Amino acid sequence: MKLTYNVLCLDDKIRSLDDTKQYLTAFNNNVGIETKYTNIEVKIGPRDDPDDFWMKIVGEIEQSFANNTFDMILVDLHMGALSGADVIDTIRKGHTIFRPIIFYSAGEPSSKSKAIQQLNDAAEGAEILGKSVFITSREDLYDRAASIFNEMHTEEHKVNNVRGLLMDRVSEFDASVGELVQNKKLLSLVPGDDKPRIARDVIGYLRNDLDSTQRLYDRIRQLRFEDILKFIEENPKDISTYRKGYILKDILRRIEVTKELAGILSEGIDGERPDHKGGTINNLRGLRNEYGHVKADNLEANHTIEKCIHIRKEARRQLKNIDDIHKYLKQIDTHVSSL
């Protein structure tokens, strides 16, 4: 189950795809999936040597594949001196995972029937038909891409795919929380009067788990704010990622400019949120536990597309919140270095 689809676009007039890309972005976002585009404008200049230009485009394609795993590729037929069919053939020979490629054209002269005929002729000549290549007119490009994405959405919504995403993304979220709890720059922003409160909160969290953490509690219950944070840094596995989430929330709440970030984090680790039907849905960690501790067959009754969409959107929101915390810390670095 994915949070992001990566799409490679090759066209000699790449801006002509702007509207299509915008509509596809909205289509995928409706089910909680972000869409990112890598653009290669295949536009040969009047002074370019055709062979050198072809090698340049091949190099850009290879670099794009080195940096991304693509879920879909859009390729125009007529790109000046280059044929989209040759581009597809090069991609297929170098990359054996057959992600869908949509081969499109407006036709020369422009007509839907002419476009389909020219596309079929080019695809047959390059022997690329039947290799996950979908032919369509430029006029129908959005509809064809959306229909393929819709099939992909159906696969994404299956229980085991959702379970995999939850295990992966919540683990990433928990690891990021653990790092931020130990971030000295963030901790230095906590007002002095609030430091004893955070120390008491940490002690309180451990007290709630006293049966399993009695020995650990005895070691730190008399420690001050700085000593407790040093203990967390030196013994990162002794305090669970579950508890570190609450510690980070408390730290963010005590810093005026990060109170909003604390609120978002709180919604990811604690309590329930209302859904659009008037009911409630579990927080991200609760959903992870729900899917992680129940057999797939027993999940089916409560596994809905709405829940899949919520999981994707909430995972993206929580990870963006973590990124925003890091961005704020970088702003502090920039400000300090400019003084």
Explain how this protein is built:
- The protein is of the alpha/beta class and 339 residues long.
- It folds into 2 domains: 153 residues, Rossmann fold (3-Layer(aba) Sandwich); 180 residues, no CATH class.
- 60% of the residues lie in helices and 12% in strands.
- The strands form 3 sheets. Strands 2-1-3-6-7 form a 5-stranded parallel sheet, with helices on both faces.
- Strand 6, helix 4 and strand 7 form a beta-alpha-beta unit.
- Helix 6 runs parallel beside helix 15.
Number of helices: 15
What kind of sheet is the major sheet? 5 strands, parallel
Mean pLDDT: 83
- As a percent range, the share of strand residues is 5-15%
* Overall number of domains: 2
List low-pLDDT spans. Answer: none
- Roughly how many Å apart are the termini? 46 Å
Principal-axes shape call = elongated
| N-to-C series of helices and strands | EHEHEEEHEHEHHHHHHHHEEHHH
Which range best describes the helical content: under 10%, 10-25%, 25-40%, 40-55%, 55-70% or over 70%? 55-70%
Write the layout of secondary structure elements.
Blueprint: E1 4-11, H1 18-29, E2 34-41, H2 50-67, E3 72-76, E4 78-79, E5 82-83, H3 84-94, E6 101-105, H4 112-125, E7 133-137, H5 141-156, H6 159-181, H7 184-187, H8 195-208, H9 210-220, H10 225-234, H11 241-254, H12 259-269, E8 272-274, E9 280-282, H13 284-292, H14 296-299, H15 305-338
Parallel strand pairs: 1-2, 1-3, 3-6, 6-7
Antiparallel strand pairs: 4-5, 8-9
